[in-house]
Amino acid sequence: MSSPYSSDYRSHRTSDNPALKKVALFTDVDFWAGGAGHRMRIAALISYLSERLKLTVIYTGDIPRPDTSGWCFTFVNVPPGQTDHLDEFLLEVLPDNQFDAAIIEYIHNSYWLASLPEDVRRILDAHDIVSERAQSFAAFDYASALFEIPADLEFELFDQYDHVMALTKQDARKIGAVIGEQKTLLCPHPASTRRHVIRQEVNTLGFIASEYLPNYDALCFFLKDCWPSLRDNDDISLQVYGNVGKWFRDDPPRKRVAFRGFVPDLKGIYNEVDIVINPVRFGAGLKIKNIEAMANGLPLVTTTHGAAGLEAAIGKALLVADSAGDFIAQLHLLIRSYPLRAEMGRNGYLLASTSYSPEICFGPLLKVI
Question: Are 83 and 109 in contact (CB under 8 A)?
Fold first, then answer.
């Protein structure tokens, strides 16, 4: 009988160096598609590991297999129905289960733990503390919109791993307080730094976001409570990039607001924008779009929630506002002060360059592997 895991499901890496550690990464996220922070995070991690280890990515999502030509890692697409036979699957795609570590993306994929050999180092890339995310969603009437898990069960599962990766210092402290600091890895998102010119005059505000519910809520809040005042008092436009625009597809046109859709060239976006906004009010984890804005040397206005994990940047590379009045005031401050925009852009670029390089973000993970 032929194997259900034939070469149709594989893309082989180019290096066969036997000295490299062997790692399997399990994910149900179509990381190659871009357009959302969680995809960018996983893609960055895979890129970093594939240059330093023998990496096998095991994908269990329902998006069709991508073109894997040029990838320097093995990609295995789990065929439909095969998740009922995980032990057999691992034996087939990872002969003799000879790999050193397994990285599981998101806690809801912890079902893989039961099929891993005992001597394999188990690592969870948690992204968020899901029980806290659920509370945050519920506070804005979005209870049960995403996967939820009680806090006691979540931390019980954390303790089943040898290490848990957290994106922010706050999450790392909370997780470490329960499972031990030695088991907790602070691994934020690395940013590709590109210095952009700060123009003398502000013409364009930019919001870059996926269709994730907190992004939809953020844009609704900004368009309703902030934009009319800014639009009527300043000669500026709002450019909205990304799939968040799908939520507004059937709405009537808004004055000086353009929905640009998904634009794969982030460099081009940041060339067009003078100030980045992120009025996100709930969710969890690190806001990758905020790191990207700073890495591109642009001033940013976000909320207290949006600045979580980026406290060192507050007042230096980003401004914080939670009410509509404060958001409008902070944007007016930036619009009318070129020196302030230039200083914040420079500070953000330097912070991203020194604190969010791939080695700083993923070095702790590589060390334990």
Answer: no
